Sequence to fold (278 residues):
Amino acid sequence: MKKIYLAIAIILLFAFSAAADITHTIKKGDSLSKISRKYKVSVNEIKNLNSLKKSSKLKVGRTLVVKKTITAPKTYTVKKGDNIFRIAKKFNLDADDLKDINLLDSDDLKAGQRILLEPEPLTETAQTADLVEEIKKLSESEELANMNMSDRLILFAEKFLNIPYKFGGSSIMGIDCSAYVQKVYSLVGINLPRSARLQFEEGESIDRDGLSMGDLVFFRTYASFPSHVGIYLGNDLFIHASSKDKKVSIGSMNAPYYFKRFIGGKRLILDNAEKGRS
Fold:
């Protein structure tokens, strides 16, 4: 098991930009060191944020600020004549990275369009603490150690059922199809690009009849290029962040909408290659 990849993935998985300061309500048995470990901040940071003195005692029910809101990512409003390459050059950025951050397929932009110049800022919130702990425990369990990679992938994938869907989102507060796939695969040590279009360029091409559990399945939905992706579960079912269901859910490959829009599968897990030969 790739513990280093898993540890990194856990940190990235639950990171997202906060809309307000992150707080903690003191409970019986809490201490500053215990709170600091939970939110991965130093004791001094908590003291400074709350003007606590060395002699200050923690009172049950008091709310402490444990992290301050991070400022919004830098943005740029497109002007007439702009394109992705001119903007990238202006801000000393890579054009492909800029397109990936903004999920752009074309180099052309519209005047007045606002684009991100850097990824959304990341931070952890109290709302994710229980799920983080669950994933950590699962990653160290004998159950996981005895599974092959495709089984581990599906186990992690199903942990995120019912997480809200949000176009362009990449957190448990709202996630889109490609970010969901990217994060689940990262938990088994496989790094994928951010967009479905680029993910379609990865791995071995698999037709519908050859799909195995854990393969990626791609569809053309709102665009001519691959614009939707999910993870195959077997029995013509797949798990995905669905804009229709507005959450991570399980769908059928035989549903008319997906049946006629399916464009192919991709295999990145060697376990599945062995299954395909058997």
